[in-house]
Design brief:
Blueprint (H helix, E strand, L loop, with lengths): L4 H19 L8 H13 L4 E6 L3 E7 L2 E12 L26 H18 L3 E9 L7 H7 L2 H5 L3 E8 L7 E2 L3 E4 L1 E10 L3 E2 L9 H18 L7 E10 L6 E2 L2 E10 L2 H21 L3 E10 L2 E3 L1 H15 L4 E2 L11 H7 L2 E7 L18 H15 L4
Parallel strand pairs: 3-4, 3-5, 5-16, 6-15
Antiparallel strand pairs: 1-2, 2-4, 6-16, 7-14, 8-12, 8-13, 9-11, 10-12
Length: 389
Amino acid sequence: MPIINRAAELAEDATVWRRDFHEHPELQYEVHRTAARVAELLTSFGVDEVVTGIGRTGVVGVIRGRQPSERVIGLRADMDALPLQETRDIPHKSKIPGRMHACGHDGHTAMLLGAARYLAETRNFAGTAVVIFQPAEEGGAGGRAMVEDGLMERFGIEEVYGLHNAPGLPLGHVSTRPGAVMAAADTFEVRLKGLGGHAARPNKCVDPIIAGAQIVTALQSIVARNVDPVESAVLSITRFHAGTSADNIIPQTAVIGGTVRTLDEEVRRLMDERFKSVVTGLANGMGVEVEIDYDWGYPVVVNHTEQTAFAADVARSVVGPDQVKTDMPPRLGGEDFAYMLQARPGAFVFMGIGDGAGVHHPEYDFNDEVIPHGISYWAKLVETAMPAG
């Protein structure tokens, strides 16, 4: 079954919604305009129930099929943007300085709205479809907030599915895998305190820059020498701040920060333990005081085997068997859909939007040509999972 004809018709309206969201990006939980517009549209579609304020600013729509059933399937899209200045000159460019939809959440929201409209019109399924519009995916753990707010229990969700656009993957192609598909995303900050003084008398100082440089170098040995070579781990130092504009002052303090990415909980714990051991040992050995904040962020996104195979089969029915791959390498980016997959079985897939700037890039823009593919995927997932007799 190719792209649904009605989905292709709805793509024009969905493009308008998407570009409106793009012009008015909102961050984390402050997605008030976006959430209000989503709720307004769901209501206009005739969705059976529209609930706002789940996980602070999340929106949930409930669509019942034309035949009753205990089956309930959840479909999730994220709504928030990024604190980034858009540089591409397009008609629907962000109207808010320093904010832009650089990850395609505007497209995710528009596609799921299109699917909600189609499902509310046709209701060609037996059971209940729950459309989930989530805030704060970009660092705010909105997925966790919705789960902790009773999302799964309140709406009786049995399985949950997510989708993310993928620049560089051909238009409409789908890629996924069972098991770990995206990484745990942890962060750290190390604060070093030495004894500042004149740069001409370093023997009278305790230099936090020297200590910090040793720590930065030594931390790279954790992945190289402590992690099993067949496992995956990344430790990246992304900032090192110390000193002033003066060339003759050894500073009192230094701050080092960065991220750790892993695909396995045992490796995640190992990285945490070795990180603290290496930093503490070197700091003590070099005579500097140290404070460590090592924060566990989003967990590993783990696709459930049965649901991943099902999602791939649905995608094949929409885009063709040769356009779906189920052996993609795991991605080391983070994604808080992980919390929903911890709460219920389900699957997360990537849908290609063709060539162009990557996500989180100031020249990124979602490719509206993929909208009918996304609407069709969501619609067929519901109709296939809960077929009407």
